[in-house]
Automatic annotation (TrEMBL):
Residues 148-297 form the Lytic transglycosylase MltA domain. The keyword Cell wall biogenesis/degradation applies. Residues 25-57 are annotated as: Disordered. Its EC number is 4.2.2.n1. It comes from the Bacteria. This is peptidoglycan lytic exotransglycosylase. Keywords: Cell wall biogenesis/degradation, Lyase. It catalyses: Exolytic cleavage of the (1->4)-beta-glycosidic linkage between N-acetylmuramic acid (MurNAc) and N-acetylglucosamine (GlcNAc) residues in peptidoglycan, from either the reducing or the non-reducing ends of the peptidoglycan chains, with concomitant formation of a 1,6-anhydrobond in the MurNAc residue. CDD domains: mlta_B, mltA_like_LT_A. It comes from Sphingomonas jejuensis.
């Protein structure tokens, strides 16, 4: 989710506490959720288990990859096949950061996916893919969703919080393989405005207001999710998605509250929201300590849009770290939380989704999605499914499947 993307998630609240959530980071032109009311109240998350330590290495190959025979494919694989089909248009154009696959590896599977009859989904995945265990396979699974908040296309009484478009001076640079964002000033790239500076009017008067939200706390959590829906005064919906971030590092306000003794360990997003609303001045100051700020664009058609530039699929899409899981690859998850167990497809990324076998499951929109995502925080085991040609290269002992 992109996103920051656009964030999200040891359950959203748990990640806020853990200090590792950053907005999820959707695709170049995109993006990686609602209560049916204007002011969502997510379900409190349980005390999150500690995420497993990240394996040594910066890619799947460096972390260690083992081909696993006989991985069981669940019978309920129809949603995963639909998500995989959606990914195919991007799969053959992408460079796989994990080193496991080449674009051409996916051609046969994508062609076969187009002809699978209903009921044939498990056989398709079993025949076209081989399972690999990356970095030992220990997984940590959370959830994200598409929130809905009150908003308006124009400022008016009760709608005073601007939702900003991407500023034209926002630029991205790469130094030693590291990505950084800033703004152009006198032909130099300087840090972009922080959250506090933007809230104080640094972007006002430039025509960058995409819409106006009713509540700053609600909009803050839309940023964490990376996309959302604005419920308009006339009953219509304006869908917004991630379109850039100011480049400042993300600070998890839940972690700050815990460190300062304001809230106990193990509380969820609802308690964090309650704290922010109980004292608006202190809440505003706390949110400003997260200098990171997300810009949005209007979304039309299916969505939200994930890091592959295609719509993500509820109950089928996971955000993953593309250095360890090829985007577009199916992923078999066996989780302590039964809802997360099954076959998923890696179609998104996230600022907090880092390391091998770190997955963020997407649950769609609505109260049920919010409740599931808000309580999702589970250990588990994961296998990544890659085309058999790529697995064969691994089996021959190649240093990387991409060779």
């Amino acid at each position: 989710m992109i996103r920051h993307l656009a964030a999200a998630t040891a359950a959203t609240g748990a990640l806020l506490l853990a200090g590792c959530v950053a907005p999820r980071t959707p695709p170049p032109a995109a993006q990686p959720r609602p209560a049916p009311t204007a002011a969502p109240r997510p379900t409190p998350a349980p005390t999150p288990p500690a995420a497993p330590p990240a394996p040594v290495g910066t890619t799947a190959v460096e972390a260690g990859v083992e081909v696993v025979a006989g991985a069981p494919i669940p019978l309920d694989a129809a949603r995963a096949l639909s998500a995989f089909r959606t990914s195919c248009r991007a799969l053959e154009r992408r460079t796989d950061q994990s080193g496991l696959t080449q674009p051409g590896d996916w051609r046969e599977a994508c062609a076969a996916a187009a002809t699978v009859a209903p009921g044939g989904e498990p056989g398709f995945f079993a025949n076209q893919f081989a399972a690999v265990r990356v970095g030992g396979g220990d997984a940590f699974i959370t959830g994200y969703y598409e929130p809905e908040i009150a908003g308006s296309r124009a400022p008016s009484a009760g709608y005073a919080v601007p939702v900003y478009r991407r500023p034209p001076d926002l630029v991205e640079t790469r130094t030693d393989g590291r990505r950084a964002r800033g703004r152009l000033q006198d032909r130099r790239v300087v840090p972009h405005f922080s959250r506090g500076e933007i809230e104080d009017g640094a972007l006002a008067g430039q025509g960058l207001e995409l819409a106006w939200a009713a509540d700053p706390v609600d909009l803050f959590f839309v940023e964490i999710q990376g996309s959302g829906r604005l419920r308009l005064p006339d009953g219509g919906v304006l869908r917004i998605g991630y379109d850039g971030q100011n480049g400042h590092p993300y600070t998890a306000i839940g972690a700050l509250l815990r460190q300062r003794g304001e809230l106990p360990p193990g509380i969820g997003m609802a308690e964090i929201v309650g704290w922010l609303r109980a004292d608006p001045a202190r809440g505003r100051a706390l949110m400003r300590e997260n200098a990171s700020f997300v810009f949005f664009r209007e979304l039309t058609g299916p969505g939200p849009i994930g890091a592959m530039g295609v719509a993500v699929t509820p109950n089928a899409t996971v955000a993953a770290d593309p250095r360890f899981t090829p985007l577009g690859a199916p992923v078999l998850i066996e989780a302590e939380t039964p809802a997360a167990t099954g076959l998923w497809v890696a179609q998104d990324t996230g600022g907090a989704i880092r390391g091998a076998n770190r997955f963020d499951t997407f649950w769609g929109a609505g109260a049920a999605a919010q409740a599931t995502a808000g309580s999702m925080s589970s250990r588990g085991r994961a296998l990544v499914l890659i085309p058999r040609a790529a697995a064969a290269r691994l089996g021959r002992g190649d240093a990387a499947a991409g060779r």
